[in-house]
């Protein structure tokens, strides 16, 4: 089920809210959690109930292994072996469903094989709930978890606002909130803030991101070479599509969770305002960066083993981050480029060189924009088409520029000329750079102007749900 659907907004969300707080009001606390778990599993199964048993198997496996690890098993080797087994089983499931086709295709290409892989459909959220539970196992091994019952653990993993596309939450962030007495009653302040944030996210997704998606898709799927202006418009369209799509999802997840008095960890903080690549990764998909740092980079040795090993650890971490996003060499290259950029940033910082703020932002943003091409492209032909067009200065002069604005062949979609695309992208720049992130919004009570604003953007968002478009992170 998608957040940007009528079923979710007008049926699932209000019904779940009513049932949860009704049971809390009559003091059926365990039943209220059970209902939230049931509705979350229903939310997950809406797409395809076939994969519900896989999710339940993963939950039971990790709960049992985590419980065993948190106990005082005296033999250190036995505990470590159990952790390795648990992590291996999680990664094996992820590898089978997500990477089988990629591995087989590469084997056939290298060894001229003829293996036909089985038809495998990627289960929803498997990358998210796998990483989330691996973190739980490692924390259990480190004796950082408490004795949680299975209901609380299941709710921690399956809570519907964060189940499909994150954030990758920690047990210590979530489970105590579900038991806090302060969260067991309706809080109108949270409802007001939650509805505002949810409405902003809906607007970002269906009005901004989905409009940009049309232009990005046409450009990447174009059967003719992209000229200079067209290529830049295509790359920027996807760059902002991804920004508003992910930001919109984060807002809608955060807003929906707040209705239940649950505060999800911050996962998005105006990343296109970043002045260097390290700053970018502190702002973009914050919980994924945290996971990679705490459970990959630091266990590899972090920066404690000298410069060369530190650089190796950075590259391994970012390549794994790229592979986590998708099973393809373009994702590997995307991760590798970001790892190399972070190493260059470290070397630059060690030499105490500083650039003016505007230049630092310009270089960082353009590096991000260019590398998103690898992230978006479905094959190397698309990478070549867009990147070649972006550096083909021979197609750029004043006459061609004016002609492109009025008669663009590739980006003239549904009578939308390039001028409209350019104006739309300029507006995106202004919104990204000049306005605060939604996570910085605070509200105690609605003023008439705020209430009107929230109602307006909500109505605009609902009216523009013309088709159910998935979030980009929906099927990772």
Structure characterization notes:
- This protein is an all-alpha fold.
- The chain folds into 2 domains: 6-185, no CATH class; 190-467, no CATH class.
- Helices cover 70% and strands 0% of the residues.
- The protein has 19 helices and no strands.
- The model is unreliable at 408-415 (pLDDT under 50).
State mean pLDDT (0 to 100 scale): 88
The SSE string, one letter per element, is: HHHHHHHHHHHHHHHHHHH
What integer value in Å does the Rg equal? 24 Å
Output the number of helix runs.
Answer: 19
Bin the strand percentage. Answer: under 5%
Helix content: 55-70%
Number of strands: 0
Shape descriptor reads: globular
Unreliably modeled segments: 408-415
Major sheet attributes: none
Indicate the structural class.
Answer: mainly alpha
Q: What is the count of distinct domains?
A: 2
Distance between the termini: 15 Å
Quick recap:
The chain is mainly alpha-helical and 476 residues long. The chain has helices spanning 6-25, 29-45, 52-70, 76-111, 126-141, 150-158, 160-163, 171-179, 188-220, 228-259, 277-283, 286-300, 307-325, 329-350, 357-376, 380-391, 398-407, 418-434, 448-463. Helix 1 runs antiparallel to helix 2 (29-45), helix 9 (188-220) packs antiparallel against helix 10 and helix 12 (286-300) crosses helix 13 (307-325).
């Amino acid at each position: 089920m998608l957040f940007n659907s009528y079923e979710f907004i007008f049926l699932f969300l209000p019904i779940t809210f009513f049932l949860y707080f009704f049971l809390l009001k009559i003091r059926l606390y365990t039943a209220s959690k059970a209902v939230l778990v049931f509705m979350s599993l229903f939310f997950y199964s809406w797409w395809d109930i076939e994969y519900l048993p896989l999710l339940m198997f993963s939950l039971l496996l990790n709960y049992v292994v985590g419980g065993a690890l948190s106990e005082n098993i005296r033999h250190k080797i036995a505990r470590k072996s159990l952790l390795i087994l648990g992590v291996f089983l999680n990664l094996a499931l992820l590898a089978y469903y997500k990477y089988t086709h990629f591995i087989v295709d590469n084997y056939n290409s290298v060894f001229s094989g003829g293996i036909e892989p089985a038809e495998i459909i990627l289960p929803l959220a498997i990358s998210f709930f796998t990483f989330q539970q691996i973190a739980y196992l490692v924390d259990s091994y480190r004796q950082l978890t408490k004795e949680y019952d299975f209901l609380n653990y299941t709710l921690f993993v399956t809570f519907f606002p964060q189940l499909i596309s994150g954030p990758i939450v920690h047990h210590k962030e979530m489970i105590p909130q579900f038991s806090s007495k302060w969260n067991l009653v309706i809080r109108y302040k949270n409802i007001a803030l939650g509805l505002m944030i949810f409405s902003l996210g809906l607007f970002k997704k269906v009005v901004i991101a989905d409009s940009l998606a049309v232009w990005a898709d046409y450009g990447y799927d174009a059967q003719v070479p992209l000229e200079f202006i067209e290529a830049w418009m295509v790359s920027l369209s996807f760059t902002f599509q991804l920004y508003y799509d992910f930001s919109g999802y984060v807002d809608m997840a955060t807003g929906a969770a707040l209705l239940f008095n649950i505060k999800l960890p911050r996962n998005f903080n105006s990343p296109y305002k970043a002045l260097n690549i390290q700053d970018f990764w502190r702002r973009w998909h914050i919980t994924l960066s945290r996971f990679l740092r705490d459970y990959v980079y630091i266990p590899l040795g972090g920066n404690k083993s000298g410069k060369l090993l530190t650089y190796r650890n950075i590259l391994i971490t970012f390549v794994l981050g790229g592979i986590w996003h998708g099973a393809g060499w373009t994702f590997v290259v995307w991760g590798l480029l970001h790892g190399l950029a972070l190493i260059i940033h470290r070397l630059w910082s060690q030499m105490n060189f500083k650039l003016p703020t505007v230049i630092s932002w310009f270089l960082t943003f353009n590096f991000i924009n260019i590398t998103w091409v690898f992230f978006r492209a479905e094959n190397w032909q698309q990478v070549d088409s867009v990147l070649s067009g972006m550096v083909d200065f021979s197609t750029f002069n004043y006459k061609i520029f004016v002609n492109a604005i009025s008669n663009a062949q590739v980006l003239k979609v549904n009578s939308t000329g390039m001028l409209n695309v350019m104006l739309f992208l300029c507006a995106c720049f202004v919104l990204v750079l000049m306005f605060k992130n939604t996570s910085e919004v605070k509200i105690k009570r609605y003023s008439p102007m705020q209430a009107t604003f929230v109602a307006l953007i909500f109505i605009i968002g609902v009216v523009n749900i013309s088709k159910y478009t998935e979030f980009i992170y929906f099927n990772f």
